TrEMBL record:
It comes from Salipiger mucosus DSM 16094. The keyword Nuclease applies. InterPro entries: Ribonucl_H, RNaseH-like_sf, RNaseH_sf. This is Exonuclease. Pfam families: RNase_T. The keyword GTP-binding does not apply.
Amino acid sequence: MQPRMVQLGAVLCDTKGREIQALNTLITPDGWQVDYDSEQVHGWTTEDCAFLGIPAAEAMAAFADMCARADVVGAHHLAFDRRILEIEAAFHPEAKMPEFRKGICTMIRSASLVGIPYGDGYKRPSLVEAVNALTDDEIDDDDLHDGFQDARYCMKVMLELDNLGVLEDAP
């Protein structure tokens, strides 16, 4: 079964972390259902999405507009998030695929700073591990899995990576 986008959360901020724009929406199901395992992770049901959601193409257009205004787009597992957007774009050819001037994966960029040994290098940290190691916040897994809250925590990690100079040489 193909994973589908259930929620889209994003925050556009300045270099000081001041919020300029936010996006937090569920996606209206168009033939898909939230599977039980996913529901247990993020708490959203098919009924929640049907009642509170907006069409995927509309959510993607709003996100694409935010990305167009951003110098850098960050995500904690950027490759996964891009793949989910590509899947939705395949189901919705009318959807505007977001374009990034520069994409930063905070999971990859924070690995050596979080410093969890793995093989000859460092483990790619979970968002919880990155937030707890790099910010003043102390969170656990129960604080995550809401797309909008995750975006805010990712923003905090990204700002700290920038403060540490880790993003200067990012492609």
